[in-house]
Structure formats: structure tokens, C-alpha cells
Amino acid sequence: MPGQIPVVDYLVLGDPPHLQARMCAQCDALYFDRRNACAHCGRRDFTWKALASTGQLRGYTQVHRAAPSVPVPYISAIVELDGGGVVKANLIDAQLDDITPGLTVTMTTFVAGVDDDGTEAIAFGYKPVKEQG
Amino acid sequence: MSSGDIWIIGASMTPFGRHDDKDLIDIAAESALDALGDADVTIEDIDILTMGNVYEANSHNGQRLQKQIGQTGIPVYNVVNACATGATALRVALLSIKAGESDIGLAVGVEKMGKGGLIGGAAKKRDARKVYSPNGRYGSVLKTEGILGTGIMPGVFAQAGTEYALAHGVTATHFAKVAQKNHAHSVLNPLAHYRKEFSLDDILNADVIAFPNTLPMCCPNTDGAASVVVVSDAKLKTMDPDVRRRAVKISASVLTSDPWVEGGQVQPDVSTLTRNAATAAYEQAGVGPEDLDLVELHDCFATAELIHYDNLGLCEPGGAGDFLDSGAPWRDGKTPVNVSGGLLSKGHPLGATGIANIYEVATHLRGEAGDRQITGAKVGLTHVIGLASACAVHILEAGVR
Known about the structure:
The structure holds two protein chains of two kinds. Chain A is an all-beta fold. Chain A has one domain (4-128). Chain A is built from no helices and ten strands. In chain A, strand 2 and strand 3 form a beta hairpin. Chain B contains 13 helices and eleven strands.
């Protein structure tokens, strides 16, 4: 069984995998990178917050032209997470025609690469939640 | 008694396009000398020089320009502020005059874009073993572009557009209409990089770069320069009547950056800083969007132009699609937008763009825009945005003749 590592440190490979953010202790603003101070209120104290895995798609594009090392096409999505937080990732298992205003999506993970030791880089993306019935 | 107003008395723009036979300073010098000539002054008259350039910003280009057109010992400011660089350079000259340090300033913006464009180059080959190790501010183990969405300009501005589309019901065809308009306008502009009309079908069926933006909906890589000469009110009063007659008043000059918004850390918010800049500019100038005879706004991608109709208050909130459908932003419409052809067809040499927009509007207000003249234009607005993040809005008015 190869080892796994998240592609970014704000992805936690737990059960279930989820995103975590630094949260300003004063105003609850969320950040995926380390902070010297809060860009919203200037406070310097932070706590951690586990983010929801579901949310609504707010904006998107399908990229067809990119640097040579980037496989295309793919759909880039901006997702507003339930309970707070906005994240950018790929929309997977979906076509442009599937996208509607307020589309509900849920997080999923995939292998983005394997290094020379056989360690898998695990990335996250979002897929549409199909209406039941 | 000086009113404290600042006036443009000279403006120029080189042809935008490929200038493979000239270096950056050749292009800047051509534009600077043209602007000085247009103002009927020489470099000897100038109190302050500001130079806007992005890609060669560490080469003290202002001083290099002086060596080509005149080393008079005046203060020089080299300015960089992403795509708002040129407009910021103008503001530095203007602020010096407002501060009473200078009476007359020359602001130059210039860029040679090369052929790389805004999508990035090939990854460097590494000979070392590949072992994943968290790196940088996000602890990433590999390049995340294309894996965690896109952060490059075509994608960022496409996503800004689709966000507006999902909220307000505009379609891919609306965005294509923006490009159709600007390419049609460019046919009348002898300084534009491209001067070719496209049908709506041509635009919609062209290669997709980042949906909904196809190739004709993205600005080309362009070289060019633009310059303006600005003076204080008191200085203008001492000048030749013909210079005074052609002077254009800068009624508002505003620069903003991004205020914090949720999600702004992952997707640059190109709207809030524009809204803030526009609001401040209208207040400063004492005019409203309904008073504008023409607008040159930052259409780096067709999606950007459409949302800026709304951000600049040219339409009702959420009404950018209807505004476009009504024909309002066409050159014969209610509020002509980008009659120069815009960045989409005129071109977008980053450091020059902000001043080129000023040149375009000033030329119309002087009644000197030739075939593309907006008849009787008295008030115009220019807008540029640079990521991340700066927005400059200027409002110009024709002088008292």
C-alpha cells in the first residue's frame, strides 16, 4: 500500500477527508495559508476550523488553453461551502451543461500524481450532487 | 487664483502591435516626444517624469528614457502596479502637482509583451528524483494549476464573468457580443493592433481559451507606449491660447485596492474595488454615469467588460445583459464603451494601457479622434484594473474653450 500525502496542507486526509482553515479569533475570517495577521480585522490570533464538504458552485470556467504541463480541458470551479469558506478546485464527473445557478456540490478526492517513492499526491475536487427521485 | 484642477495638455499613443525592431526605450521615447510636441513644450519644461512599466520594472526605465530624450536632473519615479501601472504613473505626476512640488509633469507608460502571454510557460525539467515534500505557503507538493482549478488570468476573468452570469442570467452569447462590438469599433482606429470585424458566429465558434472566452474574446499580446503631459491650473493660465483651448480637465483621479471580502483569498474580486473607485470618482467629479459621453474600460477579456458595465454604474444592478442588448455601449449608443476597440482589439501592453485609455478619451474630448470621433463628447471615464489588485478610474472633461 503506497503512502499518501495531500497536495496542499489545508486538505486533511482523514475519514472523511476534509478541508481545514485558519480562522480569525476575532471576526471568523477564514484562510488557507498561514497568516501574519487577519486581512479583515488585523487581529493576530487564529484557531483552526474544519470546513464542510458540501457547498454551492458560485463561478466556473472550462480551461482549454494552458501551460504545456497542464492537461486540458478541465472545469475550474469556485465553491461557497456550507457553514463558511470559499474554495477553488476542479469540478469533476461533470459537463458544462450540468451547471445551473446554485448547483450543489460535494467534495471528493483523487490521485493527482505519484512520486519516485510511490507516494500518491491526493487532491480534492467537487462533483454535482444529483437530485434524488 | 488656482482652482487646484489638473489639466492634460499633451497626449500620445504609439501604434499598438508588434515592434520587434524597437526596444522598450525606443517606443517610450517615441511616445514621450510626441506628447511633448502635442503640448508644445520640451523636456526642459518638465518638472517631474513618471514611468510605468511592468515586465522590465527593475531596469530604471525612467532614467533610461531620460538618456534618450533629455537628462535635466528632475525627479523620476518608476512605477509598477500590474495592469493599472500606466494610470498609477499618471497619478504620481498628478499628486506631485497637487502637492505643489511641480507645475508640469510627463507620465509615460510602455510595455513589450513578448510572445509568452498570460497562460505561463512550460515547466522546467528537473533531473533530481521526484519526492513529494510540502512547500510554500500552502504546503503544496506539486504545481496545483489545473489540479485545484485555475488561477491564471483567462480563467480568473472567465470565472468572474460566469459568477455574474449565474446570478443574473446572462449567456455566453452576451459575452461574445462584447467582443463583436469592440472588434467592430477597432476598424476605425488606425492605432489598434487588430482592425478586423468578426461575426457573432465567428466569435462563438473560435477556439475556446477559458469558457466562455474564445480567442477573439481575449486581449492579444501587444507592444506599445502612451504618454500624457499634465499641468496645474496656474501653469495652464500662463500658456499659449491654443494649448489652453485643447486642454482637458482631470475632474477625478482615484486609485483603490481590494478591500477584504470572503473568498477574495482564492478568487480575486475584480468588482468591489472597481465599484469603490467609480463611486469615489463620480463624487469627486460631480458627474454621474448618465453624464458620460464615452467610457474606456478594462476589457482584458470579454467577460470583464460585461461585469464592469455594472461595476461602473453604467446600467442598473444586474442589468449588464440588457444594457448590452439595448445597444447602449456601441459607438452610436447611449454610453459608448471602448470605441478605441478596447484591449480586445487595440491591444494590452500592460504598462501603457492606463495612459492609452486616457489618450483615447482626451482625444475625443478635444474633438480630434478622426473617423472614430464621438460627436460633441464633453465628459469621459477611463478605468483599468490590475491583479492583484489595483483599480484606477479617471473622469475627464473638455475644457472651457
